[in-house]
Design a protein that fits this description.
This protein is 65% helix and 10% strand. The protein has 748 residues and is α/β, with parallel strands linked by helices. The chain has 4 domains: 186 residues, Rossmann fold (3-Layer(aba) Sandwich); 99 residues, no CATH class; 217 residues, no CATH class; 159 residues, Helix Hairpins (Orthogonal Bundle), CATH 1.10.287. The longest helix is centred in the N-terminal third of the chain and has 86 residues. The radius of gyration is 68 Å and the shape is flat.
Length: 748
């Protein structure tokens, strides 16, 4: 099988195409250039993708890791050359499932490839399962160490132990162990313990069958005795029931008479109701009676309110009269207080003015005396009368005149101030203020009394209106069934009569309904059928309660006995036929003897096979060791010409001049990688029967130049038989290969 082309929308690849050659293809790409992605794509196209895989800490599931970076759906196509024909395999999405759709057709004709499905594609094309394919046909840097998987270990172990791939000691031993364990693993697991237990159960069943048969016979006798007791008690209970039926019938006749009486009474009341017409419901009548009682309350409130109004009007008139004051005619209380305050302020200003003028009189007199004493008198004494002395005398006289006039003015001002207080009949401004405040309070009292009169009058008017409206509504309501009513007395009488009739009707209906229910209940109990008829039965020896108690107890015992008998019979049926159980016991004894002989034979076979395998384990698989050694010699330029492998695939190498083998753990990183590369190539030859393409991802990165050349020579030779794809991020592989024929070069 060879890859002719691959087209992928997968991870970082977006409709990318790769066309390797038939032999060795050198694919160069930088780091993160898609080398590992192409390898994963090739494996996924063959084996599909595990949609059940989940992301874990430090691990990303393939279905998520390789989701296309472009956002497009995951899809791909590969063209393979298989047995001389080209086939095309396609995978794509199905709903939300990546790579859920699959098709495999012949490239030229587009006819489906028979038997090739999504689940078996990889195994049919490569000859191995996905696990073995991944661990053998994929080689990468840091992944050359061969980790065994169950199927791969089986194939290699077969080669190591028997030299034949399909013949394995471990398989044979495992199969013998399975057969032996089927017979007996321990005291409780296997066919032999199972047969032992089954035989013991059959023998126990035979014993239980005999015991159960005896029990069933005893229970049948007890049941017959209880049935006779039950029948006798049932006859006595029937007699008691007949007597009770007679009493019930009598009660039925009495209830019928009561029902007819109630019906007659109800009919009379309904006829009386018809004479008055339809009567409103009881709630409406009760409400109307309440309104009638409310009228009495309103009348009393109106009477009390009228008396209170008369008293309030009288009080208001007295307060209005008391508020009159000649000093404040037509003024409100606030206006009077303001007028008094203004007059008090005027009086105060007048007093202040009088005091001011009064203070200037002594000043005028003092100035005049000063002129007289200082000028007039001294000059007159020395020089006699002259102009200056006359002038001084004149100034003195003028000041005396001014003092006189100022005194008269002060007298007039005080007179004016006295007149302000006199018009109110008070002596001081404080009295005037008190007079005004008293007038204000009287005015407030009169206003309050007038307001109280208005409030009471409005209340009386509102209740009078409510009374008149209620009377009108009551008359309108009562006229529906008592048109003759003309006043509240008539309304009261009509309401009482209607309520009484309604009450009597309700009682009569309830009495008739109750009598009807009793009659129906008695009828449901069987009364009325055969009234007075008593069956011809013997007189019961026991009372009804004692009879019922004994009958119930006997029935309970009979039920228990019958249940035990049925259980015993069911147990007998479930146990089967005694003859069949005996035959089964003999059969089990024979099978048990045969299985014990088989167990001993298998034990002997396993011992013999173990001894034979001990000898086989003394040698290694010649073919695996030969191929691994041949490839390692080519890779190391014959430095390590031989290889030994343990069953666990641990490698030991020998140098050309060495004696003892050297573990791969002591080799350099490069040499160890070469050893395991040789081992992987040998495994691919032996474990991949269909020889699918081998992918190497930077598998030669640790090789030095000399051994790199040897490795490329080996791979080129192997590519003649099996397609190889060598991915690398370096240029030296291409430089070493040069123009080697049969090598295809691809740049990613």
């Amino acid at each position: 099988m060879k890859i002719k082309s691959m087209t992928a929308t997968f991870g970082r690849l977006n409709k990318a195409r790769l066309e390797p050659g038939p032999g060795l293809t050198l694919i160069h790409a930088p780091n993160e250039g898609g080398k590992s992605t192409w390898a994963a794509f090739w494996r996924t196209m063959l084996y599909g993708i595990d949609t059940r895989d989940k992301n874990k800490r430090g691990y990303l599931a393939d279905k998520n890791r390789y989701q296309p970076w472009s956002g497009a759906p995951m899809e791909g196509e590969i063209v393979l050359e298989l047995e001389g024909r080209d086939i095309t395999i396609r995978r794509g999405p199905r709903g939300n499932t990546p790579f859920g759709s699959f098709s495999a057709v012949y490239t030229g004709t587009q006819e489906p490839v028979p038997g090739l499905t999504a689940s078996n594609c990889g195994e049919l094309l490569t000859g191995v399962g996905a696990e073995v394919f991944s661990r053998s046909a994929f080689l990468g840097d840091g992944n050359l160490s061969l980790t065994t998987a169950p199927e791969l270990e089986r194939r290699i172990a077969s080669l190591v132990t028997t030299g034949e791939e399909e013949v394995s000691f471990s398989q044979a031993m495992e199969q013998l162990k399975i057969w032996k364990n089927r017979r007996q693993v321990n005291k409780s697991v296997g066919e032999i313990p199972k047969l032992d237990r089954e035989l013991a159960q059959v023998r126990e069943s035979l014993t239980q069958l005999e015991e159960t048969a005896a029990l069933a016979a005893r229970l049948e006798g007890e049941r017959a005795v209880l049935e006779r007791e039950r029948d006798g008690l049932s006859q006595q209970a029937a007699a008691h029931q007949a007597l009770a039926q007679k009493k019930l019938s009598d009660r039925y006749l009495q209830a019928g008479e009561e029902y007819q009486s109630a019906r007659q009474q109800l009919a009379g009341l309904e006829a009386e109701q018809a004479r008055f017409g339809a009567i409103p419901d009881r709630e409406a009548l009760k409400q109307a009676q309440g309104e009638l009682q409310y009228l009495k309350v309103l009348d009393e409130e109106i009477k009390q309110g009228s008396a209170a109004l008369e008293e309030a009007e009288e009080t208001s008139a007295k307060a209005k009269e008391a508020a009159k004051d000649e000093h404040f005619p037509g003024m409100t209380g606030e206006e009077a207080v303001a007028k008094a305050a203004s007059d008090c302020a005027a009086w105060q200003a007048t007093q202040e003015k009088a005091r001011k003028y009064q203070r200037t009189c002594p000043v005028f007199i003092a100035v005049g005396l000063s002129w007289l004493v200082l000028l007039a008198i001294p000059l007159f004494v020395r020089n006699g009368m002259n102009f200056i002395s006359l002038l001084a005398v004149a100034v003195f006289a003028f000041n005396l005149l001014l003092a006189f006039l100022q005194k008269r003015r002060v007298s007039q001002i005080k007179k004016d101030a006295a007149q302000i207080l006199e018009q109110y009949g008070v002596q001081a401004p404080e009295e005037l203020t008190a007079l005004a405040q008293s007038y204000k309070e009287r005015c407030q009292t009169a206003d309050k009394a007038a307001h109280e009169v208005e409030v009471i009058r409005n209340a009386v008017t509102e209740r009078q209106s409510k009374r008149d409206t209620t009377k009108t509504e009551l008359l309108d309501f009562v006229h529906q069934f008592a048109p003759e009513a003309s006043d509240m007395f008539g309304c009261s009488a009509a309401l009482s009569r209607a309520l009484g009739l309604d009450h009597d009707l309700a009682l009569a209906r309830e009495r008739a309904s109750s009598a009807r229910r009793r009659l129906d209940d008695l009828s449901a109990q069987g009364a009325g059928e055969g009234a007075g008829e008593v069956p011809e039965l013997p007189i019961p020896d026991l009372g009804p309660e004692e009879t019922g108690r004994l009958l119930a107890k006997t029935a309970e015992r009979l039920e228990q006995t019958s249940a035990q008998l049925n259980q015993a019979r069911g147990a007998l049926r479930s146990m089967g036929d005694p003859a069949a159980l005996s035959a089964r016991a003999e059969e089990l004894e024979e099978r048990l003897s045969r299985r014990r002989l088989e167990y001993e034979a298998l034990s002997a076979a396993m011992d013999a096979l173990t001894q034979a395998n001990t000898k086989l384990q003394e040698r290694f698989s010649p073919e695996l060791n030969r191929l691994t050694g041949l490839f390692l010699a080519r890779l190391t330029r014959d430095k390590y010409p031989a290889v030994s492998l343990t069953r666990e695939l641990e490698g030991f190498v020998r140098t050309g001049d060495g004696v003892l083998p050297r573990s791969a753990l002591y080799l350099s990183r490069g040499t160890a990688d070469q050893l395991y590369l040789a081992l992987r190539l040998a495994v691919c030859r032996l474990c991949l029967p269909e020889k699918p393409p081998i992918l190497l991802d930077d598998a030669l990165a640790s090789f030095d130049d000399d051994r790199l050349e040897g490795a490329l020579e080996l791979l080129w030779e192997l590519s003649g038989e099996q397609q190889l794809l060598l991915f690398t991020c370096q240029r030296r592989e291409g430089e070493v290969l040069g123009d080697t024929p049969g090598v295809t070069r691809v740049e990613l």
